[in-house]
Amino acid sequence: MTTGAPKLDMDRIIDDRRTRIIVCCGSGGVGKTTAAAAIGLRAAERGRQACVLTVDPARRLAQSMGLTSLDNTPRQVDGVDTAGGGSLYAMMLDMKRTFDEIVEAHADPDRAAQILANPFYQSLSSSFAGTQEYMAMEKLGQLRHADEWDLIVVDTPPSRSALDFLDAPQRLGRFLDGKLIRLLTVPAKAGMSYMKVLNAGFLMMTNVLTKILGAQVLKDASTFVTAFDTMFGGFRERAEWTYRLLQAPGTAFLVVAAPEPDALREASYFVERLDAERMPLAGLILNRVHVSPAARLSAARSLAAAETLDMYDGQDAPDGRSGPRYGLAAAVLRMHAERMNLGKRERRLAEHFTSAHPAIPVAEVVAQPEDVHDLDGLRVIGTILSRQSP
Amino acid sequence: MTTRDTDWDGVRLHVVTGKGGTGKTTVAAALALALARAGRRVLLIEVEGRQGIARLFDCPPLPYGERKVALGLGAKGAEGGDVYALAVDPEGALLDYLEMFYNLRRAGKTLTRMGVVDFATTIAPGLADVLVTGKATEATRRRVDGRTSAHLYQAVVMDAPPTGRIGRFLDVSTEVSGLAKVGPVKTHADTVARVIRSPQTVVHFVTTLEEMPVQETLDGIAELQELTQGSIRPGGIIINMARPAMLGAADLAAAASGSLDVAELVVGLKAAGISDNHGLAADLMTELKEHALQVAMQNRERDELLTAGLPHYELPMIPDGIDLAGLYQLAAKLREQGAA
To answer: What is d(CA A107, CA A235) in angstroms, rounded to the nearest whole number?
Structure first.
């Protein structure tokens, strides 16, 4: 499938030593994890010290990369060709553990224990809404800071909106600056006398909150926020650092999409957001594209031929000999017509995208007949990504 | 309403989950159409703020309010019932909750302004979940008016969060009791939980015949069972976007192993007036082999799904993309197979 878009030069990106972070983003179920793993592997085999940070890999793919245990530390992947001097590490994000580690690292033992036991902390650290994004960004920051790898490839969490991770730092900031936080920290900070100077709105709010949530919930929340208070600054600082890191020239964003309306709509939205946030977008990976090795036979002609064969099939010759059977050929022609139509529809969808974003380089990956779950499969994807014929 | 039994007679709240990319919203919408037989009213609820329902039904973004979006799938040649849709967000649900139980709408607006809703979704996602599921269960229980016992909606279909999150999302009382041991939110959560754990609620799993969605479906079913000790009923497995096999099993097996006779194809092509230029037949054979491998993979994944022992339904890939006509097609398939 060819569209008018420029071709994405994947090898140029991974061979450029200045590229330090590659972020694969896109909506759920489009093959982000596979793309990230394939890029990491190819980079390693071309001499980079690569680390793949993944969030939710398919079980067999994870196994093939040696990711059997969730220990939140990058592990070296076996079976990688290291002749070029590169290496591949991979890790699967454990968000609760990442969060716990931050708490343990930034609070004294007593306070850390208090935070870890708080019901609000437990709810926050093990839920999926937003926390995974904070933690993916936090881990990315940590890995980059450790400076043990010269290329980190991240696969973003399969969140409701693929952009949640970009919003994580701001959301944290908005939350921390919120009046609610100040309200909740008041009693512990200054006692009830301070409450008096607060306006009536605050008091009404406390009343309403107590009424709805119950006094215990409010007390737990207040304990949590107070205990957490000293750490918030550090949180925000690191989140902002990571955010700036993402904007830096050493980062390359790759938007991954399948040629389906929802995925491409999300990709469009993503591209616009990245632009608005001044994040460096390297290109679009259009995954699972259907092409035919026999594309010279059009869908229309193929279908017409199948119908012709239906008429001839089994028709006995005038001399009484039984006629030929064309069932196989007719079925193959129908299958081909369907494949061609699917390809045509995908091309039209891709053209919607490329006409709206004509300058964005695109790499197409043809649909594989089976799921990728070993290094060889990843190598095939890596090769396809890098051989985009002009 | 016909008298024919369906697999889910007596079920009034259908929760639809699935991995991202499997067409969960599409299937939820098709199920709502299928359930809306003549004379029935069905509510389709979306909880993730993506406005996917509005897009499917080709109408402007849904406000926080129930609105009629389509006519259901009728019996042959007849009109169906009514399908209403609602997009729930935690903020709207919170305001609703405050108004309904405390008559506190204005205070609710203040809470929103002061970041309480951010607070709920950031610090205590369990609270947001209970508000959202609370809205769905409220609609399920709602009566036409105070004088009759007839329900306003004969069925409610919820386009729920993805499989990875569904267990927690539905297990509201546990989620909330971690935060609130007593108090009004706890009481509310218990009411919601009673509906969700009753026989009138089931959770359907949407999947495609691919490795990861299938694995996630099986994991999701197991997790639901484990989290709720079987008190939340799994419903059916709805296989979406299945690609039909275009050849018989024997031919496909031969194609996959490469033992199919190219000569037979060449003869057929020639009879149809297509010459075997530049190895066209060989290329078609390559394509056929890919098709055979894909069908084989689909069969393996289907067998894997059946180990869950749940009723299952299969929906074909709609080649031209999903529009309203496509939705009715899928609804008809669901009804044919007894899902509605």
So the answer is: 12
**How do beta strands A87-92 and A75-76 pair?**
antiparallel
Q: Quick one: A10-294+344-386 is in which CATH superfamily? A: P-loop containing nucleotide triphosphate hydrolases (3.40.50.300)
Quote the ipTM score.
0.84
Per-residue model confidence (pLDDT) at position B253: 93
Domain ranges of chain A: 10-294+344-386, 299-342
**Maximum alpha-carbon separation in chain B:** 79
Question: Domains plus CATH for chain B?
Answer: 13-243+317-333 (3.40.50.300), 249-293 (no CATH)
Give the integer Cα–Cα distance in Å for A103 and A113: 9
Q: Given a cut of 60, is residue B10 above it in pLDDT?
A: yes
Of A124, A128, A213, the CB nearest to B164: A128
Instruction: Convert the pLDDT of each residue in B325-336 to its tens digit.
Output: 999 999 999 999
Task: Please check whether residue A182 is in contact with residue A190, taking contact to mean a CB–CB distance below 8 angstroms.
Answer: no
- Kindly list the residues from chain A whose CB atom is less than 8 angstroms away from the CB atom of residue B321: 261, 345
Provide the 8-state DSSP code for B61: P
pLDDT digits (tens, 9 = 90+) for A62-85: 877 877 766 788 999 999 999 999
Question: Do B181 and A211 make contact, defined as CB atoms within 8 angstroms?
Answer: no
Q: Over 80: is that where the pLDDT of A194 sits?
A: no
- Asked if residue B340 lies in contact with residue B35, where contact means CB atoms within 8 angstroms, the answer is yes
Please name the residues between 252 and 281 in chain B that touch chain A, using a CB distance below 8 Å. 260, 264-265, 267-269, 271-274, 278, 280
Searching chain B, which residue's CA lies closest to the CA of residue A325? B268
**Does residue B180 belong to the interface with chain A, where contact is any CB pair within 8 Å?**
yes
**A229 phi/psi in degrees, rounded to 5:** -45, -50
Alpha-carbon gap: A215 to the closest alpha carbon of chain B (Å): 8
Return phi, psi of residue B73, to 5°: -80, 115
Q: How far is B12 from chain A (nearest CA, A)?
A: 27
DSSP H or E segment with residue A269: helix A261-276
Q: Which of residues 79-118 of A touch B (CB under 8 A)?
A: none
- Residues from chain B contacting residue A203 (CB–CB below 8 Å): none
Minimum distance, in Å, between the CA of residue B235 and any CA atom of chain A: 23
**Chain B CB contacts of A216 below 8 Å:** 180-183
Sort strands B82-87 and B41-46 into parallel, antiparallel or unpaired.
Answer: parallel
